[in-house]
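USER: Fancy drafting a protein?

ASSISTANT:
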Amino acid sequence: MSEAGGPLRPVVCCDLDGVVWRGETPIEGAADGITQLRDAGLRVVFLTNNSSGRVADNVARLAACGVDAAPDDVASSAQAAAALLSRSHGPGTRVLACAGPGVVEALVAAGFVTTNFDSDDTVGAAAVVVGWHRDFDFERLRRAADAVRSGATFVATNLDPTYPGSDGLLPGAGSIVAAVQTAGGRPPEVAGKPEAAMAALVRARYADPVVMIGDRPSTDGAFAAALGVPFALVLSGIVGSDGEEPVPEPAPAFVAADVGALAPQLVRAFARA
Protein backbone atom coordinates (compact mmCIF):
# COMPACT_ATOMS: atom_id res chain seq x y z
CA MET A 1 0.00 0.00 0.00
CA SER A 2 1.07 3.59 -0.52
CA GLU A 3 0.00 7.16 0.16
CA ALA A 4 -0.11 9.38 -2.92
CA GLY A 5 2.37 7.06 -4.64
CA GLY A 6 4.81 6.97 -1.71
CA PRO A 7 5.55 4.41 1.00
CA LEU A 8 2.98 3.84 3.73
CA ARG A 9 3.91 5.78 6.88
CA PRO A 10 3.38 4.40 10.40
CA VAL A 11 0.01 5.63 11.67
CA VAL A 12 -0.44 7.32 15.05
CA CYS A 13 -4.09 7.44 16.20
CA CYS A 14 -4.91 10.51 18.28
CA ASP A 15 -8.03 11.33 20.28
CA LEU A 16 -9.40 14.90 20.16
CA ASP A 17 -11.35 15.92 23.30
CA GLY A 18 -8.89 16.26 26.16
CA VAL A 19 -5.93 15.69 23.84
CA VAL A 20 -6.02 18.39 21.14
CA TRP A 21 -8.64 20.62 22.74
CA ARG A 22 -10.82 21.07 25.80
CA GLY A 23 -14.14 22.51 24.71
CA GLU A 24 -13.21 25.49 22.53
CA THR A 25 -9.73 25.84 24.03
CA PRO A 26 -6.67 24.34 22.27
CA ILE A 27 -4.45 22.34 24.61
CA GLU A 28 -0.96 23.80 24.87
CA GLY A 29 1.65 21.60 23.25
CA ALA A 30 -0.76 19.56 21.12
CA ALA A 31 -0.13 21.25 17.77
CA ASP A 32 3.64 21.28 18.35
CA GLY A 33 3.61 17.60 19.29
CA ILE A 34 1.65 16.64 16.18
CA THR A 35 4.12 18.61 14.06
CA GLN A 36 7.01 16.72 15.70
CA LEU A 37 5.38 13.39 14.88
CA ARG A 38 4.73 14.36 11.27
CA ASP A 39 8.23 15.78 10.79
CA ALA A 40 9.57 12.39 11.92
CA GLY A 41 7.65 10.67 9.12
CA LEU A 42 4.64 9.47 11.12
CA ARG A 43 1.07 9.92 9.89
CA VAL A 44 -1.26 11.31 12.56
CA VAL A 45 -4.99 10.56 12.26
CA PHE A 46 -7.75 11.61 14.62
CA LEU A 47 -10.32 9.33 16.24
CA THR A 48 -13.15 10.89 18.19
CA ASN A 49 -16.04 9.46 20.17
CA ASN A 50 -17.71 12.87 20.07
CA SER A 51 -20.23 12.27 17.30
CA SER A 52 -21.81 15.72 17.29
CA GLY A 53 -19.54 17.43 14.76
CA ARG A 54 -19.50 16.82 11.02
CA VAL A 55 -16.20 15.86 9.42
CA ALA A 56 -15.69 19.42 8.11
CA ASP A 57 -16.40 20.78 11.60
CA ASN A 58 -13.62 18.66 13.10
CA VAL A 59 -11.20 19.60 10.29
CA ALA A 60 -11.98 23.30 10.90
CA ARG A 61 -11.51 22.94 14.66
CA LEU A 62 -8.16 21.23 14.10
CA ALA A 63 -7.10 24.08 11.81
CA ALA A 64 -8.09 26.58 14.49
CA CYS A 65 -5.78 24.70 16.88
CA GLY A 66 -2.91 24.93 14.40
CA VAL A 67 -3.25 21.39 13.02
CA ASP A 68 -3.79 20.75 9.30
CA ALA A 69 -5.92 17.70 8.52
CA ALA A 70 -7.72 16.24 5.54
CA PRO A 71 -11.24 14.80 5.87
CA ASP A 72 -9.85 11.26 5.58
CA ASP A 73 -7.65 11.95 8.60
CA VAL A 74 -10.73 12.07 10.88
CA ALA A 75 -12.78 9.03 11.94
CA SER A 76 -15.70 9.40 14.35
CA SER A 77 -18.08 7.27 16.36
CA ALA A 78 -20.84 8.65 14.11
CA GLN A 79 -19.24 6.93 11.12
CA ALA A 80 -18.77 3.76 13.16
CA ALA A 81 -22.46 3.85 14.15
CA ALA A 82 -23.54 4.18 10.52
CA ALA A 83 -21.26 1.28 9.54
CA LEU A 84 -22.61 -0.84 12.38
CA LEU A 85 -26.20 -0.14 11.35
CA SER A 86 -25.38 -0.97 7.72
CA ARG A 87 -24.73 -4.57 8.75
CA SER A 88 -28.40 -5.12 9.55
CA HIS A 89 -30.29 -2.43 7.60
CA GLY A 90 -30.14 -1.49 3.95
CA PRO A 91 -30.12 1.90 2.23
CA GLY A 92 -33.38 3.81 2.54
CA THR A 93 -34.06 2.60 6.09
CA ARG A 94 -35.64 5.30 8.26
CA VAL A 95 -33.45 6.11 11.26
CA LEU A 96 -34.19 8.39 14.20
CA ALA A 97 -31.02 10.36 14.95
CA CYS A 98 -31.19 11.37 18.60
CA ALA A 99 -27.83 13.02 18.08
CA GLY A 100 -26.01 15.92 16.48
CA PRO A 101 -25.31 16.81 12.84
CA GLY A 102 -22.29 14.51 12.68
CA VAL A 103 -24.54 11.47 13.09
CA VAL A 104 -27.03 12.79 10.52
CA GLU A 105 -24.16 13.33 8.05
CA ALA A 106 -22.80 9.80 8.58
CA LEU A 107 -26.22 8.16 8.27
CA VAL A 108 -27.07 10.03 5.07
CA ALA A 109 -23.65 9.17 3.60
CA ALA A 110 -24.42 5.49 4.32
CA GLY A 111 -27.74 5.75 2.45
CA PHE A 112 -30.15 5.99 5.40
CA VAL A 113 -33.09 8.38 5.67
CA THR A 114 -33.05 10.37 8.92
CA THR A 115 -36.27 11.37 10.62
CA ASN A 116 -37.01 14.82 12.03
CA PHE A 117 -37.82 15.59 15.67
CA ASP A 118 -39.68 18.70 14.50
CA SER A 119 -42.44 16.59 12.94
CA ASP A 120 -44.31 13.36 13.65
CA ASP A 121 -42.22 11.22 11.29
CA THR A 122 -40.23 9.73 14.18
CA VAL A 123 -43.03 7.16 14.50
CA GLY A 124 -42.13 3.93 12.73
CA ALA A 125 -38.37 4.46 12.52
CA ALA A 126 -36.60 1.14 12.10
CA ALA A 127 -33.56 2.22 14.11
CA VAL A 128 -32.47 4.82 16.67
CA VAL A 129 -28.94 6.19 16.92
CA VAL A 130 -28.16 8.09 20.13
CA GLY A 131 -25.14 10.36 20.42
CA TRP A 132 -24.02 13.52 22.18
CA HIS A 133 -25.93 16.71 21.40
CA ARG A 134 -26.94 19.83 23.30
CA ASP A 135 -30.60 19.71 22.19
CA PHE A 136 -31.50 16.61 24.18
CA ASP A 137 -34.66 17.19 26.23
CA PHE A 138 -37.68 15.36 27.60
CA GLU A 139 -39.47 15.21 24.24
CA ARG A 140 -36.46 13.72 22.49
CA LEU A 141 -36.11 11.22 25.31
CA ARG A 142 -39.78 10.28 25.01
CA ARG A 143 -39.66 9.72 21.26
CA ALA A 144 -36.36 7.84 21.28
CA ALA A 145 -37.52 5.59 24.13
CA ASP A 146 -40.85 4.96 22.38
CA ALA A 147 -38.97 3.80 19.27
CA VAL A 148 -36.71 1.52 21.32
CA ARG A 149 -39.67 -0.03 23.14
CA SER A 150 -41.40 -0.55 19.78
CA GLY A 151 -38.50 -2.73 18.62
CA ALA A 152 -36.30 -0.32 16.69
CA THR A 153 -32.63 -1.23 16.50
CA PHE A 154 -30.88 0.77 19.22
CA VAL A 155 -27.33 2.00 18.51
CA ALA A 156 -25.23 4.24 20.74
CA THR A 157 -22.31 6.15 19.29
CA ASN A 158 -20.39 5.61 22.55
CA LEU A 159 -20.81 5.31 26.30
CA ASP A 160 -18.35 7.93 27.61
CA PRO A 161 -20.15 9.35 30.67
CA THR A 162 -18.41 12.71 30.42
CA TYR A 163 -16.01 14.63 28.26
CA PRO A 164 -13.58 17.42 29.14
CA GLY A 165 -14.80 20.96 28.46
CA SER A 166 -13.02 24.28 28.84
CA ASP A 167 -14.23 24.73 32.42
CA GLY A 168 -14.45 21.13 33.65
CA LEU A 169 -16.30 17.96 32.83
CA LEU A 170 -19.49 17.97 30.75
CA PRO A 171 -22.10 15.19 30.48
CA GLY A 172 -21.12 12.86 27.65
CA ALA A 173 -23.03 10.67 25.22
CA GLY A 174 -23.15 7.87 27.78
CA SER A 175 -25.31 10.04 30.03
CA ILE A 176 -27.84 10.57 27.22
CA VAL A 177 -27.71 6.90 26.22
CA ALA A 178 -28.37 5.89 29.84
CA ALA A 179 -31.59 7.93 29.86
CA VAL A 180 -32.84 6.35 26.62
CA GLN A 181 -31.82 2.87 27.81
CA THR A 182 -33.64 3.34 31.12
CA ALA A 183 -36.84 4.64 29.51
CA GLY A 184 -36.64 2.29 26.52
CA GLY A 185 -36.06 -0.84 28.59
CA ARG A 186 -33.05 -2.35 26.82
CA PRO A 187 -29.36 -1.64 26.19
CA PRO A 188 -27.89 -0.49 22.87
CA GLU A 189 -25.31 -1.84 20.52
CA VAL A 190 -22.28 0.44 20.91
CA ALA A 191 -20.23 1.67 17.95
CA GLY A 192 -17.42 3.95 19.14
CA LYS A 193 -14.19 3.37 21.02
CA PRO A 194 -13.39 0.84 22.39
CA GLU A 195 -15.91 -1.31 20.52
CA ALA A 196 -15.42 -3.56 17.48
CA ALA A 197 -17.24 -1.32 14.98
CA MET A 198 -14.76 1.51 15.55
CA ALA A 199 -11.82 -0.90 15.42
CA ALA A 200 -13.07 -2.25 12.08
CA LEU A 201 -13.46 1.28 10.72
CA VAL A 202 -9.91 2.21 11.76
CA ARG A 203 -8.34 -0.94 10.34
CA ALA A 204 -10.21 -0.56 7.03
CA ARG A 205 -9.14 3.06 6.65
CA TYR A 206 -5.67 3.14 8.18
CA ALA A 207 -4.43 -0.46 7.96
CA ASP A 208 -2.23 -1.19 10.99
CA PRO A 209 -1.74 1.73 13.43
CA VAL A 210 1.27 1.63 15.74
CA VAL A 211 -0.02 3.53 18.82
CA MET A 212 -3.16 5.16 20.28
CA ILE A 213 -2.90 8.57 22.02
CA GLY A 214 -5.73 9.37 24.42
CA ASP A 215 -6.74 10.85 27.74
CA ARG A 216 -9.26 8.25 28.98
CA PRO A 217 -7.83 4.82 29.93
CA SER A 218 -11.25 3.14 30.05
CA THR A 219 -11.95 4.15 26.44
CA ASP A 220 -8.71 5.03 24.64
CA GLY A 221 -6.64 2.54 26.61
CA ALA A 222 -9.16 -0.22 25.99
CA PHE A 223 -9.28 0.73 22.32
CA ALA A 224 -5.50 0.49 22.07
CA ALA A 225 -5.81 -3.04 23.45
CA ALA A 226 -8.54 -3.83 20.91
CA LEU A 227 -6.23 -2.69 18.10
CA GLY A 228 -3.29 -4.54 19.61
CA VAL A 229 -1.13 -1.41 19.92
CA PRO A 230 0.47 0.45 22.86
CA PHE A 231 -1.52 3.13 24.70
CA ALA A 232 0.02 6.61 25.02
CA LEU A 233 -1.70 8.49 27.86
CA VAL A 234 -1.77 12.27 28.11
CA LEU A 235 -2.74 13.95 31.37
CA SER A 236 -4.47 16.91 29.71
CA GLY A 237 -8.00 15.50 29.90
CA ILE A 238 -9.85 12.96 32.03
CA VAL A 239 -6.72 11.80 33.87
CA GLY A 240 -5.04 14.74 35.52
CA SER A 241 -6.64 17.88 36.89
CA ASP A 242 -10.20 16.51 36.65
CA GLY A 243 -9.14 13.20 38.13
CA GLU A 244 -12.16 11.24 36.91
CA GLU A 245 -9.92 8.27 36.08
CA PRO A 246 -6.55 7.46 37.67
CA VAL A 247 -3.39 6.49 35.83
CA PRO A 248 -3.75 2.72 35.41
CA GLU A 249 -1.59 0.24 37.29
CA PRO A 250 0.62 -0.82 35.67
CA ALA A 251 1.07 2.46 33.82
CA PRO A 252 0.69 2.56 30.02
CA ALA A 253 3.71 2.23 27.79
CA PHE A 254 3.87 6.00 27.30
CA VAL A 255 2.69 8.76 29.68
CA ALA A 256 3.17 12.53 29.41
CA ALA A 257 1.52 15.79 30.35
CA ASP A 258 0.41 16.56 26.79
CA VAL A 259 1.11 15.61 23.18
CA GLY A 260 4.03 18.02 22.99
CA ALA A 261 5.78 16.23 25.84
CA LEU A 262 4.71 12.82 24.52
CA ALA A 263 5.93 13.26 20.95
CA PRO A 264 9.67 12.66 21.53
CA GLN A 265 8.88 9.32 23.19
CA LEU A 266 6.80 8.24 20.19
CA VAL A 267 9.35 9.46 17.68
CA ARG A 268 12.04 7.37 19.38
CA ALA A 269 9.76 4.32 19.43
CA PHE A 270 8.08 4.43 16.03
CA ALA A 271 9.84 6.73 13.56
CA ARG A 272 11.71 4.80 10.91
CA ALA A 273 15.41 5.46 10.57
User: Anything to note?
Assistant: The chain has two domains: 2-74+194-270, 78-190. The chain has a mean pLDDT of 93. The first strand starts at residue 2 and ends at 3.
